Amino acid sequence: MAKKKSTPKSTPKTGRKTAGSQAKKSAKKPAKKLPRRVARVVGKKKPPTRRKRAAAETAQTPSPGNDALANTGTPPIPSELPILPLRGTVVFPGTITPISIGRASSRQLLDESLATSKFIGLFTQREETEEEPGIDDLYEMGTAAMVLKLVRQPDENLSIIVHGLKRVRALKATKTNPYLRAQVEEPSERPGSSKTFDAAIAQLREQARQLIELSPNAPEQALTVLLNIDDPGNLADFLAANIDLSVEQKQDILELTDVAKRVRAIHHHVSSRLQLAQLQAKIQEDVEIAIGDNQRKFFLREQIKAMQKELGEDTGDGEQLITRLREQLEQAAPPEAVMEEAQRELTRLEAIPPASPEHSVISSYIELIAELPWNTASEENLDLIEARAILDRDHFDLDKVKRRLIEYLAVRKLNPDSRGPILCLVGPPGVGKTSLGQSIADAMGRKFARLSLGGVRDEAEIRGHRRTYVGAMPGRIIQAIRRAGTNNPVLMLDEIDKLGADFRGDPASALLELLDPRQNNAFVDRYLDVPFDLSAVLFIATANYMGHVPPALHDRLEVIEIPGYTDHDKAAIARKYLIPRQLKEHGLRRSQCRWAAPAIHTVIEHYTREAGVRELDRQIAAVCRNVASEVASRPRRKGSRARTANGKPDSRSVTPDLVREALGPEKYVREIDDRTKPPGVATGLAYTPVGGEVLYVEAAAFPGKGGFKLTGQIGDVMKESAAAALSLFRGRAEALGYDPDKLAETDIHIHVPAGAIPKDGPSAGTSMFTAIASLLLDKPVRGRLAMTGEITLRGKVLPVGGIKEKTLAAERAGVRTVLLPKLNERDLEEIDPRVRKRLKFRFVDTIDQILDHALGVKTR
């Protein structure tokens, strides 16, 4: 096998000069040793090291049979040859080439075949990466060669020196294992005989002579060998083997059996390299004329400048910089108005000296225009089935979001010019909003870019700074488009509800134009100062709570709510996504850490209390670390994967007991039964930016003067709900069988535990009224019952929002019955079917119905 990096160059072999005579001549002149091939006449190469030169001399030493071979002529080629695949090199007839052998099959080929015959077939691989190529993996045309010498290196590698004899064509393989043998035939060559052909030979020989003379590293023997080759075919093969050509180009020449075509092909390559050598000589001559001999440093700088000037790559000079910028603008092909602005800036740049600070500002501005993808767009994947499969692969459930994306793709498929909506994914943390953006981009075949807007307070972060400011730069939108490299990426605006506002402006207001499909086709960044079309960009925003988003911005968004996960959903996500990922990150095999279903439910119920799965992921990682430390500390017996040296299984089943051992005491227990046993405690449901929550409203009464006190970090809205609840009870006290005069002698204290957490919202009226009624009527609230809704002074129950999140929180807390306002009955369809099966819903219109369901009290 020929290794690409270490394959030496072939030494030419002609009828007039044998390898032995060249070796003797080389020995007489040690200062001018032959390279690995007699003549590599194009390009400057790094001189070989002492070790490489010694290896080359050893490899090129001909065998004693070489002279005999030269005297007797070319021997007949057998009809069947062992085939040695070459990687990254082509051997031509008439050349002597050393080859390094690396494959075991190639070493066996030499060991077995050289004992009976010195002939082998040298065929180049089509793909260099193929380790065991077959007959179809090699080029059809190769070279029959005779092995002159075999050299065994000290590192057990082999090297052979071969003499290329004739072109042969592989017909069919007769043996494939352990090495390749094939039947071959010698193609007939068609010699050239016209006057035009003779003139082409003469011109080729002359150009080759000039090329050798212009090449500083060409050995003296190369010109002598060139002049002594009379046969046109041999001359073409000699030049093809020794000029710098690619493997494909050399193989094309090898396959030419028509000598005239072969001469024309090599003539083309020699001419192109001669022109390059003449250009290099001209540059060298121009530099030598321009400077003096005693100015070496200046000479080097002028030489580099002259070379860059000829190549058009001079970026240091102002004129070349302007030329380069103009070429980049032409390649970017911006709209006509943008191109006119860029041309005006280029005209200004020509009049400004490079040392001026404004020079760099203008050049940076033009480079930005040239780098923006004005006409580059990703090809969309409009296969709806494939897109749905990608979304299902990356995320569990979220059917509403997936269905909306499939609808968007369907519209794009039917009407490619349609302007898409601005989607906004709203839900608690950890439900997969941000990662869903990458999945959407993969499903659509677009690039993905993400902008984190959390904490952004400067409006210039969105629109950019004017170029008159020091350190001005474009806004985040334009920067993201430039990084994406396409004008239709999926651009995610993460945490849009966390935008701030101060004296520097309101970033949310800057997004109004950006997120309007009818206006963003001409978005103007202040730094860019020319319109850029953003209508093809798919914007996806994320938020935890839309209450913090300004109304004008909210109006431009199509809100898709993502509720929290049920325990069943979390268990499925843990099995399908979280556990496999954590096992991989901790270096554990599935057999070493087998998770039982009860263990997963233990982590979910007793160690997490969230709407998403981030905390669940952390707790699973903690258990995996515990198992990994145990597995890593066990000594492993050699050759055994299943058991350790002490005979114990090299695996661990994760059970609830192991979970408690790894994570410690249970953090969360269902306390609803204990909390609601005494009178005066009602269970309310609240909606927060992190999902639904269960609130326990406690009321206490003691002798006083009719005072009223609220504690527990309650906001103004909840304070008003508490005051309305107390007034409503006062008005209905007599109907409920309670003496109204006692209220004037009783102080009431309402407390909502977890006082460090601020609480506010218009949905706690029913729970506060129930807590007061339960306390004063001395009747405990029925077990495992929760409620939500606002009340009026007339006893009506008003609808509230966040029903999905509240019911999820109730299900996690162990609630069995939920009291909802009658007008929220329409929201029942959006609740998870599994949650609807586990909960009983009672819909109420008035406070009297709540008292009946919660306390069993009927108003008289």
- Whole-number average pLDDT? 81
Count of helical stretches? 31
Sheet with the most strands: spatial strand order: 2-4-5-6-7
- Residues in helix, %: 40-55%
Number of domains: 6
Question: What would you report as the Rg, rounded to the nearest angstrom?
Answer: 42 Å
Q: How many strands, what sense, and barrel or not for the largest sheet?
A: 5 strands, mixed, barrel
Instruction: Please name the CATH architecture of the largest domain.
Output: 2-Layer Sandwich
How does the overall form come out from the CA principal axes? elongated
- Oligomer classification: single chain
Flag low-confidence runs: 1-72, 639-648
The first-level CATH class name of the largest domain: Alpha Beta
